[in-house]
Amino acid sequence: MTAKKLTAKQKQFYDALKDLMDRKGESPTVAELVKLMRFSSPRAVTQYLDALEKKGMIERGRYEKRGIRLTDYLNSEPTTVNIPVIASAGCDNLNIFAEKNLGDYICVATELLQGVNKDNVVCVKAVGDSMVDAGIEEGDYVLVEVTENVNHDDLVVAIIDSFAVIKKIEFANNAIILKPVSQDPQYKPIIVGKNFRLFGKVIDVIRLQPKGELEIVPLYNPGPDGPHLNYEFI
């Protein structure tokens, strides 16, 4: 399973490279990429190519003039998709503003998005520790399907007075409750009213490890037979 983090500039370079290869039907030379990207030297191109190769986005034939191959380009269907990191969302109190695009992207395996329209999937960065027992920790990247179609006990991202929170949702007779998933008593449920807006449903959680690799981590999922954990490592 693949999950790699692209910077905004790496994503821009990759998109330009893919567009050029789609149009020309062949790999560009380094000189052509220097001209396309308006770089001052070939060194900048090779640095981007090195970064994309390390993240599994391309393959290169070292002694070929046109040796760049996109990994997605080699298959009939893409194996990865780039998901924009659009905001931070608080797992504690309402202290994280719902920001716009942060300029980063997470590259994830398409198999993570089975049954979900990838155009409706975004990523938010978790802040705080009130969801640790749901598998969401400070700094985690949380994949979210933008939808209002959620069920009781789903993990959701909600917007309250322009502040974003990640919580477990519960439906009572006359109220909607956003609950933390933590044994720490300092974290309290939030009962929401008309200022509440549901943003989306949590799909998966990706954690950046100290050595720079990303990992799909256990995610709380109540399911039909009660809570269980469902995870896979990369």
How would you explain this protein's 3D organization?
Mean pLDDT is about 80; it is low at about 225-234. The chain has three helices and 15 strands. It starts with a strand and ends with a strand. The strands form three sheets. Strands 1, 4, 5, 6, 7, 8, 9, 10, 11, 12 and 13 form an eleven-stranded mixed beta sheet that branches. The chain has helices at about 10-25, 30-35, 40-55, and strands at about 5, 60, 70, 80-90, 105-110, 120-125, 140-145, 155-160, 165-170, 175-180, 190, 195-210, 215, 220, 230. The protein folds into two domains: about 5-75, Winged helix-like DNA-binding domain superfamily/Winged helix DNA-binding domain (Arc Repressor Mutant, subunit A), CATH 1.10.10.10; about 80-225, Umud Fragment, subunit A. The protein is of the alpha+beta class and about 230 residues long.
CATH architecture descriptor of the largest domain: Ribbon
Number of strands: 15
Number of domains: 2
Q: Between the first and last Cα atoms, what is the distance in angstroms?
A: 5 Å
Average predicted confidence as pLDDT: 79
Helix/strand-derived class?
A: alpha+beta
CATH fold type of the largest domain: Umud Fragment, subunit A
Describe the largest sheet: 11 strands, mixed
